[in-house]
Amino acid sequence: MLKPRAAIQGLHAYQSPIMSRAGLCLDLNENAAGCSPRVVARLQSLSAGDVSRYPRREDGERLVANFLGISPDQVLLTNGMDDALAQLFAAYLEPGGELLFADPTFVMYGLLGQACGAQVVRLQSGEDLELPVAEFLKRITPQTRVIAIANPNNPTGRVAPRCELLRIVEGAPNAAVLIDEAYFEFCGESLIGELARYPNLFVGRTFSKAYGLAGLRLGVLTGNAEHIADIRRLCPPFNVNAAVLACLEEALADQAFVRDSVALARRGCRQIEELCSELGLRCWPSSANFVLIRVGAVARFVEAMRRRGVEVRDVSANPGCAGCARITAGRGEEMNGVLQAMRESIAEVRA
């Protein structure tokens, strides 16, 4: 009887978190402002030839490399950040090797590591949900093959100081250390400038958040040129679609849109945090486009928000996030309604 590998048999399938698209969707950290009008115009101009031909990923990699100030051979474009993770993990993880990360964090780390047959080592952040740097340094062993750190972190929104991240990079010279900067634009702190100093450092980016291209799927993996070349060996040559590659130049060129989107998200997050203070709710200061809130009866809160036309994310299953919901910042004109829905939903839960 045909069966998958034991590591695959032990996986719990990651179900799509999309519950509904009927109301205001503040559950998936998408860009509330949409995407640049220049991107929309380029999409509308695509020809039959643009769609029917295989795309040249390398052209996009040169554009991104030039934008980031690094060499094209240090850049690998992927089908979203999930694909970048899958390629990196497949290159360096094997049965007996260790994947190290700290909970709560992006759920795909553990799933992909388990799929590779690796030993998944989970550290636990404290009540403040800051990165437990000392615990990382204690737990690194000769078997540690990959360390994954989201910075800013999802679902907490916390950001770790660059000096602390570099302590971990320096402490694991024989491991691939990935700094997942999916929410970089909202905090402005990056380690891409350190790639030349640390050959074991990889930095990931995405166009799904600040650029608003989640539906087109484009991720970026950067690192030492030799190591990126190793990962290219297993990466399919046409893993990035023609539509997003055609739009890439316009997306990069419209930095005014990105700045406005970031400013919008920051305002929305501050409004949510201020309301939490007013209502006596625990929340964590966010350096991303969402806020983590401890509401207690989270399932009731999520349902109460849904009845008021707002989708938010129940993240209570994440270690350290008991009773927590994650709320993405909405557009300026939407936030009054979101805040009122929160007030009413919290009152309903408490009653």
Can you characterise this structure?
Helices cover 41% and strands 16% of the residues. It has 351 residues and is of the alpha/beta class. It has 2 domains: 111 residues, Aspartate Aminotransferase, domain 1 (Alpha-Beta Complex); 217 residues, Type I PLP-dependent aspartate aminotransferase-like (Major domain) (Aspartate Aminotransferase, domain 2), CATH 3.40.640. The chain has a 7-stranded mixed β-sheet with strand order 2-8-7-6-5-3-4, with helices on both faces. Strands 9-10-13-12 form a 4-stranded antiparallel β-sheet, covered by helices on one side. A two-stranded parallel ribbon has the order 1-11.
Topology (SSEs and partners):
Layout (H helix, E strand, L loop, with lengths): L5 H4 L14 E2 L11 H8 L3 H5 L4 H12 L6 E4 L1 H13 L5 E6 L4 H8 L3 E6 L8 H7 L4 E7 L11 H10 L4 E5 L3 H4 L13 E6 L12 E5 L1 H8 L9 H12 L1 H25 L2 E2 L6 E5 L3 H10 L2 E2 L1 E2 L9 E5 L3 H19 L1
Parallel strand pairs: 1-11, 3-4, 3-5, 5-6, 6-7
Antiparallel strand pairs: 2-8, 7-8, 9-10, 10-13, 12-13
Helix pairs in contact: 2-11, 4-11, 5-6, 12-14, 13-14
Task: Offer a few descriptive terms.
single chain, seven-stranded mixed β-sheet, 14 helices, 2 domains, Aspartate Aminotransferase, domain 1, 351 residues, Aspartate Aminotransferase, domain 2, 13 strands, alpha/beta
**CA-to-CA gap between the ends?**
55 Å
Assigned CATH superfamily of the largest domain: Type I PLP-dependent aspartate aminotransferase-like (Major domain)
Percentage of helical residues? Answer: 40-55%
The overall strand count is 13
Strand ordering within the main sheet: 2-8-7-6-5-3-4
Order of helices and strands: HEHHHEHEHEHEHEHEEHHHEEHEEEH
Percentage beta strand: 15-25%
Largest sheet: 7 strands, mixed
Question: What count of structural domains?
Answer: 2
Category from helices, strands and their pairing: alpha/beta
Shape: globular
Uncertain parts: none
Q: CATH class of the largest domain, anyone?
A: Alpha Beta
Question: Looking at CATH, which topology of the largest domain would you report?
Answer: Aspartate Aminotransferase, domain 2
Overall residue-averaged pLDDT value:
96
What is the radius of gyration? 20 Å
CATH architecture of the largest domain: 3-Layer(aba) Sandwich
Count up the helices.
14
